[in-house]
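Narrative summary of target 7.
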Amino acid sequence: MEALESQLKPLQDKVARILEQAKQLGASGAEAGAGLDLGLSVTSRLGEAETVEYHCDQNLAVTVYFGGRKGSASTSDLGDSSLRETLEAACVIARHGNEDPCAGLHDPDRLATRIPDLDLNHPWQLNAEQAIELATACEQVALDASNEIVNSEGATLNTHHGIRIFGNSLGFLHGYPASRHSLSCSVVGKRGEQMQRDYWYTVARDPNDLEAPDKVGLRAAERTLARLGARSLTTRQVPVVFTAEIATSLIGHFLAGIRGGNLYRKTSFLVDSLGKQIFPEFMHIHEEPHIPKGIGSAPYDSEGVATFPHDLIDRGTVKSFILSSYSARKLGMQTTGNAGGVHNVIVDPGRLDRSELLREMGSGLLVTELMGHGINLVTGDYSRGAAGFWVENGEIQYPVEEITIAGNLQDIFDNLVTIAKDVDRRGNIRTGSIWIKEMTVAGKR
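Modeled conformation, tokenized:
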């Protein structure tokens, strides 16, 4: 892994050189990003190594501006001649492009000048044999959990270590290494003629922060066993709770609704929502890009704009959109440092854990899996296949499957009752389980 860090300066030099060459070719502005990634991925299935893959990828992408005309090109060959050809290709594209008054680099005053150390780089000194051993041990715990666990889709371990460099003609040039590791397991259970599958996973920047392999395997088995005996439901209007790992998708739909590209194209049901209340007053959703070791943490966005903590929702009201420099200009606004996406979106939890939340709900549906993509972002209409558990008197009664849950996202947001404190911290969106007052559940007639 030391060899990877040694490539930081050479990659920066390549980016600096291509920016200088862009200026020489007459570009009024330019930006370039380069990356080098190393990784190992292994999958063990039924006690044997099924796949072992090493990854070593490199790339460089450059964008040039001739006034309001833009051209981009990329290459995986970082030799001098290839980089020159890539730059020239970008210039040709720009010279033949249409003038766009919103195109161009971001405003210089938004440039990241103080780069915080976010503790993102924790390489895992792991060889293939060790990785296989960990994956095999994880799967074996799941297989041994019950005689009803009859098959496996395998356990997979991934370890990734990379460098990202970004520079532009405003004088910005910076790069940093980062790591990401994960372990997952998926198994199949059988009871009578019915079969079910489920999974569990852990992910972290630092391998020391991963859940132990035996815990991952056992959780995968427990989730699979809990689904055996599933049945459908008759169509009804009922309260619905999304478990924390599924609730992230609801927050993801909100984020898509306030993303700049969807707003200026007017393909979102949240157009003109800035300053309007769309959630209950207790809702607070904010972006925290500087969390140490955070999966979504970043000191600057993909344009070199400094990231910063800010509210997206405060007291249920939209306080900010998600904007790059281009989408901000299209909307007559300022970039929010979100070119390339969001960085650690936090939904503040309430006072209840999930079991307490179910007791307060009384009767309803607990959703643990969603299927399909029945989301119309223009209208907010929502319809997805689901599986989970039916709850009576605050207690889980039996697993359910072959149902569909439906509603409208605006109504769903407005009818949000509370957020549990069982926050899932594994991804870029952190939320607890979400209780919706009522949704349509469609099953058997």
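Residues 194 and 228 are 7 Å apart (CA to CA).
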